[in-house]
Structure formats: C-alpha cells, structure tokens
C-alpha cells in the first residue's frame, strides 16, 4: 500500500508542476481529468501537491526562486526542500511579519458565503481552508495561536511551533495541536466533529459533558455530542479522502442515499433538491461539483433512471411511471 500511495503522490506532483508551469493542452487536460476521476485517492494527493506549491508561494521570494529551479522533482523531494534549511532564510523573513501580528494581538475575521471555499494563509505558515458558509476569528499572541470557529467547517494545516500551541475553539470544545492537519465542523443540528488527517490533537471540553482530555491520532474521527462523552473511531484512508473532497470544490459519495447526498448539497447552494420519499433510499456513488446541485440531480437521474424536473430554485427527483423510458 505504501508503494502505491508513493506512486500516486509522484503522479500528483507531476500534474501539479505541469499545471503550475502553464496551461495544459486539450489532450493533456483530458488526460488529467481522467486521472483525477479514476481513483478518489488521486483527488487528495493532487490537493496535497497543490498545497505544497501554495506554501512555496507564501515564503520569501528569494527562497521561491531557489525552489522553483527544482520544479520537475517529485513531491517527496520538494517536501524535503521545504522541511530543510534551503528555505530557512525565507521562513525567517516571513516570521518577522508573523511576530508583529502576535505582538499586536489583533483579531482577524475570515468568512465564506454559500458555496464558497477559501484558503487563508496565516502569518505563522499555517493554512486554514474554510468550507461553505463558515467563519473563523484568528488571534495570535506570543504564547498562543488561537482560532475560534464561529460556524461551519474548516481544515487546519498547522505549522509546527511547540512554544506557541495552536488551539481551535468550537462551542465548548478546544482542539490543541502543535504540527498537524485536521478539520473541525460545527454545523446546525449536528454534534461537533474533528477529523484528524495527520499528527495528533488533544480534545478538551468545558461544557456540561466535560471530561478528561482525549488524544486523537491520524485517520481518526471524533464526535462530541452536546450531552455525552467524546467518541472516537478510526477512518479508512478512502473515506478520509472522500470527506475532505470539499476543499477542492467537490463532494464525494460512496453508496450514499439520495436523501443524505441531498442534505450535503443543501449546505452549498440555495437551489433545493426535492426527492420523492419513494426513491430517497436509493444510493449514489461518484464525485460531484459541490455547488452544482442541478448537475448532480441530472447525473443521479440518469444513473438511477429517475425523472428530473428543474425550475429556477428547485430540482425534483422522482421515480418514473411503469413502462416509461
């Protein structure tokens, strides 16, 4: 499995570099689209490769030029460049700006609208990706990096700094990390959820369900109901990749019921999908554009042999009458 994942990462790095250097030809774009759709792991690997390029673009310009000379290198080599002293000068220069913000202790607010996904580079080198209809407040001090998730869902890719813990607050939950990647979601009528992609985080509650801190490792999802203890369970890599597809503007389903899929699309668009209860339990599998409910409804109708009716702000899915083509 490790060899397979390494090869996928190498392919993803090659695609990221080719797209970063310039637009692909129509033939190459078709090849890229086919590769992306062939395996859900390709989507996650490509996203990671893009994140590496994004990080390089946020460091000092001198370091950028040094790294760009090695663009054809595979992802693992590029990661080694990022992690070693070859860009230390750039990171040090970047840190000067970050320290100014920590010392000022100013609070910054970032938000997304319906159907938007936004990447937010932070002064310490961390990255926040906000999902649809989400809001965070960021406040750095010399002792602590503090993020308040006001609503919605966010992915945090945390730069390591043991002297300044990175703490995300959501409701009565505190998620503490040093250097890791994880998501926190706080959605209406759902328990707070934490999904750890890399590293280890510590969960601590202050509300009525307060208990001892819980450490959660990579490939684990923790669910915190309002009036019950935190429950953590392992997550397969394929499911983790599907769950995080939103950061690339996609929703990935694997035998999800129409009813559940429609519920997810409702988070990204004000165009409603109405499903006939008679077909609501039918299942769908695939990768879909998150803010295109009409495209999803038409694709589901074609695969499941359903009738689709589209109006300006509503899409209806229902079973076809007996004998209908």
From TrEMBL:
Residues 109-202 form the FecR protein domain. Gene3D superfamilies: 2.60.120.1440. The keyword Secreted does not apply. Residues 10-52 form the FecR N-terminal domain. Keywords: Membrane, Transmembrane, Transmembrane helix. The chain crosses the membrane at residues 81-102. Pfam families: DUF4880, FecR. This is FecR domain-containing protein.
């Amino acid at each position: 499995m490790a060899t397979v994942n390494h090869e996928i990462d190498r392919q993803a790095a090659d695609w990221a570099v080719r797209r970063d250097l310039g637009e692909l030809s129509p033939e190459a774009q078709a090849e890229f689209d086919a590769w992306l759709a062939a395996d859900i792991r390709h989507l996650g690997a490509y996203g990671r490769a893009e994140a590496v390029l994004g990080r390089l673009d946020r460091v000092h310009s001198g370091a950028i030029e040094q790294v760009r000379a090695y663009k054809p290198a595979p992802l693992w080599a590029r990661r080694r460049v990022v992690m070693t002293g070859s860009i230390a000068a750039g990171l040090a220069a970047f840190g000067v700006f970050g320290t100014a913000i920590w010392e000022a202790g100013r609070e910054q607010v970032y938000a997304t609208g319906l159907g938007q996904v936004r990447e937010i580079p932070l002064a310490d080198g961390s990255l926040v990706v906000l999902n649809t209809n989400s809001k965070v407040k960021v406040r750095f001090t010399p002792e602590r990096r503090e993020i308040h998730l006001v609503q919605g869902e966010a992915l945090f890719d945390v730069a390591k700094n043991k002297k300044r813990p990175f703490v995300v607050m959501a409701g009565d939950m505190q998620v503490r990390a040093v250097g890791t990647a994880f998501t926190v979601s706080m959605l209406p009528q759902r328990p707070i959820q934490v999904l750890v992609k890399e590293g280890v985080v510590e969960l601590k509650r202050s509300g009525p369900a307060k208990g001892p801190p819980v450490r959660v490792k990579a490939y684990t999802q923790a669910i915190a109901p309002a009036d019950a203890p935190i429950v953590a369970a392992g997550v397969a890599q394929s499911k983790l990749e599907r769950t995080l597809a939103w950061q690339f503007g996609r929703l990935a389903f694997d035998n999800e019921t129409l009813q559940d899929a429609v519920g997810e699309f409702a988070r990204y668009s004000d165009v409603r999908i109405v499903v006939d209860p008679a077909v609501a339990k039918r299942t769908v599998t695939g990768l879909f554009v998150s803010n295109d409910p009409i495209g999803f409804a038409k694709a589901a109708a074609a695969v499941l042999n359903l009738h689709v009716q589209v109006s300006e702000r509503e899409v209806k899915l229902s079973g076809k009458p007996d004998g209908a083509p």
